[in-house]
Structure formats: C-alpha cells, structure tokens
Write a structure and sequence with these properties.
56% helix; mainly alpha; two-stranded antiparallel ribbon; elongated; 15 helices
C-alpha cells in the first residue's frame, strides 16, 4: 500500500526520524507543568480535592509543541480519594496522568497508535525510535556526500565547452534541483541537532530558538523543500522522457525543446506547491510548523504527481531494456552477455530515473518487528540520501566524455610544465551513458576555440551553463543512432 508517511519531519523522510524522539516520548505523559488559571493548584500538584470535585475532569488548553493543536484541550481527572487519577490500565503514579490525546491531530494519533500497538508493544516502540535516531546520522552522511559530488559535477559540466550538450543540460538542471533540496535538508537537520543538544542542558527544546521554533520561517523552509523535491522529480521525468525518445522514438529527435522542458521542470512545481501550501495552511495552520503535514490526505497534491513520474519512468526503463535486448539479439550476442548488459543498463538508469524512490513512498512498517523496521529504514534512507552521489558518480565522474575532457585539460596543464610525453587515453570503464549531438561544437574544435573561452569567462555563469545555442551558421552533427545509444548505456 502506498502511503504518505515518507517524511522525517520534513515530509520527505519518515516522520519518526526527527519527531518521535522529541515528541512520542511525551505521548504517554508530559512532564511540563501547566498552571490552570482558574484554580489554586498546578497540574503537578498531588492533591486535587478540594476544591476540585471527585471524578470531575479538568480541561486545560494544550501546550505549544510539535504536532499539537493549541486550540484543543488536554484533561486530567480527580479520584474519589482526592488525588489525581492515573492512566487507565496502568499503575497509578503520585502525580497522576494527563491525557494529551485530544491535543494531537487524527493523523498523528494514528501514527502513534500504530507504533505502540505493534509487535512488542512499548519495548519495540522504543527500539524503533532509537533506530530512527541512528538513521538520521546515515542521512546526514549521505546528503553531505551527495552535496559535494553534485557541486563538483556542476562545476565540471559548466567549465568544459565540450560537455555542453542537450544531455548535460538536463543533467545540470536536475543537479541544481537536488542541490537545493539537499542544502535545505542539511540546514534543517543541523538546526534540529543543535536545538536538541542544547535542550539537554536546558531541559526544554522550546527554551531555545531555531527554525522549528520560528513562525513562518519554518513553514517557508518546508514549502521550499517540497518545491525543490517536486522539481527534482520533474527533471527525472524529463531525463526519462528524453532518453526514451532518443532510444526508441526517432520522430522526436528534432530540435531540443529547452523552453518546454524548463516550464515543465521549474514552472509546473510552482503551481503544485502553491496549491498544496494554501490547502495545508488551512488544514494544519494551528499546528506548530505544520508538524505531520505529510500524513494528511492533502499531501497527495504533491506526492501523487511524484508517484506518477516514478511509474512513468519505470515504464520508460522497461521499454529501454526491451530495445537493448532486441539490439543485442540482432548482433548475435550470447545469452549471458545479454543478461549482463541488460542488468548493467538497469543499474545505471535506476537512480537517474528515480525508481528507488518507490521504496520511500511505501508505508513504514511501524507495526512490524524492530528488525523489519530497521531494514526498511536503513535501506530507504540510504537510497534516498546517497541518490545524488550515485547519479553524480555514474553520469559525471565515470562518464567517458567527462573523463576525456578532464584528461585533456590535465594534458595541457602538464604540457605547459614540460611534460610533453603525456597523452590522453580514452577511458573504457564507462562511456557517455547515452550520446547526443553537442549543442556548441564538436570536441575536435575545442582546442582551436580556447581564446574564445577567455572572452566568455566574464559573462554570467548561469547563462554560460544553461544557455541555448542560437548560432544558425553552425550545423550540429547528426545525432547518434539508437543502436549506439543503447550500447553506450550497457557498456
């Protein structure tokens, strides 16, 4: 079953990862004293009668906190003995028990009930919370490596003119969307870690200010995060659509529709995010920082198109593999070699097309054993956090065109310093994944145009990286036939 519980307090990872360790532990019994304004006692007092009548429920506005609606009321009851009643079905404590269940939204209560009523009860729930905390460390490491790899890849794609083609232009837009998303994630994660580390000394998270405690800034951060994540999925769809058209549909191999792709990749997420933000603000506006917004049905305004993108890309992947197998059979390749190349092509394309995000969109096994939850949590967050690193590795660092450009640059650098015996060898491990016609000039004209590079260096770097070639006098070479594209993927 597909669910929206794929967030870690920021609607994209499991909700447990950032919230259960600070909120679920307070689900059974809050320890923060709350003063009742119309009585002479506090909720930490042992005696409740007089003046409170026996058996009477006293309501108190819910305290501010994650996942709590401050317009609702918590309550506790006074026993016939004049003491606060304990939690039903459990041993009564001196201070009694405060029922904070009405303070939470329906979706958050369902999450907690599923966690605590699952296999193993409270003991297993505590283990799952500990697993969620350790998963956060894995995420921070993965996103840090992804951010570094993506930034280096963008620098490489923008620096070398021989790499400025239609394919890398799509890559650069995808990388930018992923970089924005990763930066926001890491900022939120680091801010939460600082607040929590400081709250251990002060005893209360609300006493320290951070993004989660700042009105409007917190909501704006999550809105921008959701926009960047939607852009990432849209550019993954464009990657799949472009590759599928190059490989299987020759009729679309005409002029590169850069404007259409830009509107789809950056424009359509604006409309989706705006509709979702307005709807969510009306539904969970009273909750602190929209806590648990990914659990609401309105989250499907964003998650629905993302799921559709993943499913379409999966169809593209199957068709690409089918064409690959057909071409391999026509070349009389052995069955073992056919399987090897098909598997290799699938492995290379799966992260680029976002297929791994299907696992992140499935419902978290909160009611299963701690081992099952640990496997799901670690695998899901590993694939999500390291996705940018794998994409940069496969489509930049191991890309044949990139390695040739780097080697040529290194050759020029060494030749200037007297190492004239250095020569460039074509790398053989990975080719260009799928080749397209360059939008600027053929690789063999790069050396003759080095002087023009110096003149363009003063221009804005954004226009240099993402500009559209409009020189009508320059004829681009014919695009590579589908056969060479397919074999490039699998080599």
């Amino acid at each position: 079953m597909i669910s929206t519980s794929s967030s870690s307090s920021d609607a994209t990872q499991l909700l447990l990862n950032t919230t259960l360790d600070s909120c679920a532990l307070k689900y059974d019994e809050f320890v923060v004293p709350i003063t009742v304004p119309y009585c002479n006692w506090t909720w930490d007092d042992v005696l409740c009668w007089p003046p409170t009548p026996a058996g009477k429920a006293i309501r108190q506005p819910c305290p501010p906190g994650h996942g709590i609606d401050t317009t609702k009321f918590a309550e506790r009851r006074c026993s016939a003995e004049g003491r606060w009643e304990g939690r039903p079905g459990s041993i009564s404590t001196t201070l009694g028990w405060t029922n904070y269940t009405p303070c939470y939204s329906r979706e958050v209560l369902q999450l907690f009930r599923k966690l605590y009523s699952g296999v193993g009860g409270n003991n297993e729930a505590d283990i799952k919370i500990d697993i969620a905390e350790r998963t956060r460390t894995l995420e921070i490491v993965g996103f840090s490596l992804s951010l570094t790899a993506l930034i280096i890849s963008l620098v490489i794609f923008c620096k070398f003119r021989s790499l400025r083609n239609n394919r890398t232009r799509i890559h650069k837009n995808l990388f930018v969307a992923m970089v924005i998303q990763v930066i926001i994630r890491l900022t939120l994660y680091i801010d939460q870690a600082i607040i929590r580390s400081g709250s251990k000394g002060y005893g209360n998270e609300s006493s320290r200010h951070g993004i989660d405690n700042t009105p409007y800034l917190c909501e704006a951060s999550y809105i921008l995060l959701e926009y960047a994540r939607t852009c990432m999925f849209m550019w993954m769809f464009i990657e799949g659509l472009y590759l599928h058209n190059v490989v299987t549909v020759t009729v679309f191999q005409g002029r590169f529709p850069h404007t259409l792709y830009a509107m789809l990749g950056w424009g359509s997420p604006v409309a989706l995010t705006a509709i979702w933000a307005v709807t969510t603000a009306q539904y969970v506006g009273q909750q602190k920082c929209w806590w648990g917004y990914n659990l609401t049905p309105y989250y499907w305004i964003l998650e629905g198109p993302r799921l559709a993108v993943v499913l379409l890309n999966f169809i593209f992947l199957l068709n690409i593999i089918r064409v690959l197998i057909v071409k391999l059979r026509q070349s009389h390749t052995s069955d073992v070699e056919q399987v090897r190349k098909a598997v290799r092509a699938a492995v290379v394309l799966v992260p680029l097309l976002g297929i791994t995000n299907l696992l992140n969109m499935t419902e978290a096994p909160l009611d299963k054993t701690a081992l099952e939850f640990a496997i799901w949590s670690y695998v899901t967050h590993f694939l999500t956090s390291f996705q940018g690193f794998f994409i940069a590795l496969l489509y930049c660092f191991l890309n044949g065109e990139v390695r040739i450009a780097l080697m040529k640059s290194l050759s020029v650098y060494l030749s200037i310093r007297g190492h004239h015996d250095w020569h460039v060898r074509r790398p053989s491990m990975f080719s260009a994944a799928y080749g397209t016609a360059p939008e600027t000039e053929a690789p063999n004209t790069v050396d003759s145009n080095r002087a023009s590079n110096a003149r363009t260096s003063s221009k804005n770097w954004i226009s240099i990286c993402f500009r559209v070639q409009k020189d009508p006098s320059q004829q681009a070479p014919e695009p590579a036939p589908p056969e060479s594209v397919i074999f490039d993927i699998s080599d």
